[in-house]
Write a sequence for this structure.
């Protein structure tokens, strides 16, 4: 029979949360790369395709209409800003997660 140690439980929870944050950072990196590869017109077309079915059922669907309207307002500079933001934010998360999992003290305040 194992004895319950609260410190072990918190350590596991911390590791799970840290790994989840690292996976989120990897997804941000992938999203930033994809934004660099896709033009605003291609994004508008993708959103139109994804919302077409929903809008055909309910032309006043709030979320689908909002997505379509937002995609129509995208410019090249907005997409570039989003890509750079996602790349930098994702990279910082991944670096901090790797440092935390290696017990680097400098990473804990971050």
């Amino acid at each position: 029979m194992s004895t319950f140690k609260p410190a072990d439980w918190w350590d596991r929870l911390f590791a799970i949360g840290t790994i989840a944050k690292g996976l989120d950072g990897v997804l941000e990196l992938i999203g930033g790369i994809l934004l660099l590869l896709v033009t605003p017109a291609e994004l508008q077309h993708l959103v139109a395709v994804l919302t077409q079915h929903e809008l055909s059922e309910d032309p006043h669907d709030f979320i689908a209409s909002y997505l379509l309207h937002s995609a129509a307002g995208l410019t090249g500079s907005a997409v570039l800003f989003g890509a750079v933001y996602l790349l930098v934010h994702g990279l910082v998360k991944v670096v901090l997660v790797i440092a935390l999992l290696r017990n680097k003290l400098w990473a804990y305040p971050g």
Residues 20-107 form one domain. The CA atoms of residues 34 and 106 lie 31 Å apart. The two ends are 38 Å apart (CA to CA).
